[in-house]
Design goal:
The radius of gyration is 18 Å and the shape is globular. It is an alpha/beta fold and 309 residues long. A hairpin with a 7-residue loop joins strand 1 and strand 2. Helix content is 38%, strand content 16%. The relative contact order is 0.14.
Length: 309
């Protein structure tokens, strides 16, 4: 049963790249789409840009880059009929006047390339050849699409965001371009790549929100070298806490049950690196599972943290 759940999750994310043909419906604001954004770094993919109600070129907005863009707004257009409902959650926070207004840049995942796009590359490269073989075997047994040998492409994925997509957004929309107003967010593998993004580009991203961060990298904790490699990487590359914000969380049901013990080790490292309640939050949600419904319920917390006035 456990392997069936994991396989379903993996295959569903692959299928989700084809789940939408029309723009997602939103409760508040409006969405514009860049169809198949061309890149010299990664495969072309759609990018959905959400602008809040009353968006005006005469004002400046912060920017939130989010992964798995086809799962963010409209449950009726997603593969599992769930969504983050970002427009609804953000708009309610705007009405409370507790946070700064922002636009959302929803980057679609690449389907079959999702795992390699989102898997932090430099921690993987810390592994020995035998450890890489172990990771490769674990991913293949979970039906992650691998031609021959698993090779993360996340450095190129981040180059796409930083060198191609962000310049386009900065030029096209009325936004602040500095790191103090540029944030990144995702869940599961999207949580991993959000963590990696702020470590690799601390001058670009001022904050990262990582929900249900998929610390195992594969889908088992047995004989898995990845979590230790991630912690070794973070120890050397976490950005300066004086100028960055980081949010982590997890539940303990379905896939999330793999995360709490690793998250505790990451939290200990955060303390050692000088993070405190001013620039770092870790939340634990007993009974919550690995789903868009779960992330939507608590989305107001990282949004309130990152964009607090």
């Amino acid at each position: 049963m456990k392997k069936l759940i994991i396989t379903t999750i993996v295959l569903s994310f692959i299928l989700s790249v084809k789940a939408q043909s029309s723009l997602p419906k939103v409760v508040h604001g409006k969405i514009e789409r860049i169809e198949n954004f061309e890149s010299k770094y990664i495969t072309p993919r759609n990018v959905d840009i959400w602008m809040p109600e009353g968006y005006s070129p005469s004002k400046k907005y912060s920017v939130l880059y989010m992964h798995d863009g086809q799962m963010l707004f409209d449950p009726e257009s997603s593969w599992n009929k769930q969504a983050w409902n970002v427009d609804d959650v953000a708009s309610k926070l705007f009405e409370s006047h507790k946070i700064e207004k922002f636009i959302v840049v929803g980057i679609w995942n690449g389907g079959e390339t999702r795992h390699s796009d989102y898997f932090p590359q430099k921690p993987f490269e810390l592994l020995s050849n035998s450890q890489r073989d172990t990771v490769n075997a674990q991913l293949k047994s979970s039906h992650v699409p691998i031609t021959n040998t698993f090779r993360p492409q996340s450095d190129n994925y981040l180059k796409f965001i930083v060198k191609e997509l962000k310049p386009y957004i900065d030029k096209t929309y009325s936004v602040y371009s500095n790191k103090e107003n540029t944030y990144v967010m995702g869940s599961s593998m999207g949580g991993l790549i959000s963590m990696y993004a702020i470590c690799e580009y601390p001058k670009v991203f001022g904050g990262a929100a990582c929900l249900s961060t998929h610390w195992p990298g594969t889908f088992t904790l047995d004989n898995n070298p990845i979590p230790d490699a991630f912690i070794t990487y973070l120890n050397k590359n976490l950005p300066n806490p004086k100028s960055h914000k980081i949010y982590f969380d997890c539940g303990d049901e379905t896939l999330d049950k793999l995360y709490p013990e690793i998250q505790k080790k990451v939290d200990q490292l955060m303390v050692e690196k000088g993070y405190n309640e001013d620039n770092w939050i870790t939340k634990y949600f007993p009974g919550e599972n690995h789903s868009e419904n779960a992330w939507s319920k608590r989305l107001h917390i990282p949004l309130g943290f990152l964009f607090k006035k």
